[in-house]
Amino acid sequence: MEKREWPLFVYGGLSSCIAELSTFPIDTTKTRLQVQGQLDGQFNKIKYRGMVDAFCQIYKQEGFLSLYSGISPALIRQCTYGSIKFGTYYTLKQATNEYLQVTEDVAVNFGCAVCAGIISASIANPTDVLKVRLQALGRDKTGIFLNTNVFKCFRYIYVHEGIRGLWKGVGPTSQRAAIIAAVELPVYDYCKYKLMDIFGNHILNHFISSLIASFGSAVASNPIDVIRTRLMNQKHNRNTEVVQQHIYRGSIDCLLKTVKYEGVKALYKGFIPTFVRMGPWNIIFFVIYERLKTI
């Protein structure tokens, strides 16, 4: 790797962690909204009426810190997923553009983004599973997850569900990452390129471009995000003598059962917090990322 390329990975991870810390409570409300109605005795009741109601109930019943349940694996995830995703995308795009002698080609950007999304999400999947489990549990649950942390959660999954439990939902996770990257990164770069004549390489350009990219990626990715969240949150004890029937046997089964029992609208559960989070997340990320690139 050339000397000028490795900082892209560092900048991507650092910017991702700052954006994650700033918007994580919204992500927690999104997870709670997505798992409610799930075919599971613990989560099948509809408890929250929307993002604001979820935020208020979590804050009142579980405390402010519960909004940051799962922040440890989330930051670990961004150090890996964020670094690999953005570093791979911009490095691969730069190399491809130089080889083909093109500038901001949509097809090139799309292909590079899909590759970066799949690779990074597959590697970082265990941290995503831990994050979802801790977010869904909160801080007032009883039983085996009482006062749990990322290490206890990891140990429980590994002991009771095996190494495969840490890669639960890796299929839809990779698909979601590919969709988000394929929409978010090329749209951002395209908007930024087109707005250069108006705003130049200014923070206002980065703000508008990231906001447009966020809306597109939220619309495209929310259905598969619901599926992968439910698969990750689904528990299975491999040590029980009685074979436990999976609630969802896979991505397609989860999709069909969700639509059958809850309707098509269920695929857009958590859309508002998804977009409300994606907007600020991408704005914070790209503004910081662009500043770091000028160093």
What value does the average pLDDT take? 86
Shape: globular
Give the % helix: over 70%
CATH homologous superfamily assignment? Mitochondrial carrier domain
Number of domains: 1
SSE sequence, one letter per element:
HHHHHHHHHH
For this structure, the CATH topology is Mitochondrial carrier fold
Total number of helices: 10
Q: How many strands, which pairing sense, and closed or not: the largest β-sheet?
A: none
What is the architecture at the second tier of CATH? Alpha/alpha barrel
Backbone CA Rg: 19 Å
* Number of strand elements: 0
Class computed from helices, strands and strand pairing: mainly alpha
Tell me what portion of residues adopts beta-strand conformation. under 5%
Intertermini distance = 19 Å
Low-confidence stretches: 141-147
CATH class: Mainly Alpha
